[in-house]
Recover the amino acids of this structure.
């Protein structure tokens, strides 16, 4: 069932909360403005902080179709917008030849019609949808190259694409567009100017605890607090890749699966590969450094009465 767009920032915050996404006021404000003014929302931040999840929650809570364009190096129009079904076109030509007396002009018109058009995510997002404007997620735009970025700028300017054989297809209602970037390269200013911008940062300890209560409700409260405290300390270190919220959730699930009720040196040592994804980072934390962080964490929690 399709829901109406939220009419205020508090309603937007409530919408995200209803979908299990713990957001702050600033994110809810940026999202509300993007929805109300029909502008794409450009989300930038480290991998694993919850950028993609925002589009998924919007789709679920609003009852809209989620159309995802996963970006990668070399992404082109045939993969992102449309392409012709060449095998089917060739079959149609063979059938026409076998039947004999085919009208070439009529056949050419038939071959380049909607029946032979394969819609890719961008074109599909512009087509009318009975459930309302879909949520178009353009994920990890920084992985594409600049020519595709320039083409995307043209699409988002008027929410239309031109297919030479058919003409211009324009959206009756603009889709809800969420663009994400992990900032492996800078996105051109021209595209950013079309969007509202928001930097999705690592959550505070309190917000990360709220996330764990939702995403890992079976985890003991004490274990979740220790995990959050440990992860927050790790993020202060000079690592190749800081653990994101996704890794925190995975780590808690792994510890619960192994029946750990609290963090101890052995638990950390045996499961660091769930939290950290690079061997250099694991080597930096293993052993004495992990023990130091655990001791420091226990002291702080004891002084604050959380132990």
């Amino acid at each position: 069932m399709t829901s109406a767009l939220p009419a205020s920032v508090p309603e937007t915050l409530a919408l995200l909360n209803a979908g299990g996404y713990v957001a702050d006021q600033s994110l809810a404000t940026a999202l509300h403005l993007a929805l109300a003014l029909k502008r794409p929302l450009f989300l930038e931040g480290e991998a694993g902080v919850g950028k993609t999840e925002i589009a998924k929650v919007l789709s679920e809570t609003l009852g809209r179709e989620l159309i995802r364009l996963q970006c990668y190096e070399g992404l082109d129009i045939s993969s992102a917008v449309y392409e012709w079904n060449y095998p089917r076109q060739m079959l149609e030509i063979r059938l026409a030849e076998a039947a004999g007396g085919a009208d070439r002009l009529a056949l050419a018109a038939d071959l380049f019609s909607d029946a032979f058009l394969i819609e890719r995510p961008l074109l599909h997002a512009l087509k009318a949808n009975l459930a309302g404007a879909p949520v178009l997620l353009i994920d990890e735009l920084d992985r594409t190259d600049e020519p595709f970025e320039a083409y995307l700028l043209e699409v988002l300017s008027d929410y239309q694409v031109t297919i030479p054989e058919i003409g211009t297809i324009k959206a009756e209602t603009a889709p809800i567009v969420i663009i994400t970037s992990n900032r492996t390269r800078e996105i051109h200013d021209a595209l950013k100017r079309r969007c509202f911008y928001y930097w999705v940062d690592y959550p505070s300890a309190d917000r990360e605890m709220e996330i764990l209560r939702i995403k890992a409700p079976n985890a003991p409260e004490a274990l979740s607090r220790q995990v959050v405290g440990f992860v927050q300390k790790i993020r202060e270190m000079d690592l190749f890749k800081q653990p994101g919220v996704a890794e925190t959730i995975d780590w808690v699930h792994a510890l619960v699966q192994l029946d750990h009720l609290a963090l101890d040196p052995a638990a950390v040592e045996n499961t660091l590969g769930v939290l950290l994804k690079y061997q250099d980072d694991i080597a930096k934390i293993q052993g004495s450094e992990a023990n130091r962080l655990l001791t420091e964490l226990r002291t702080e929690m004891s002084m604050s009465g959380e132990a």
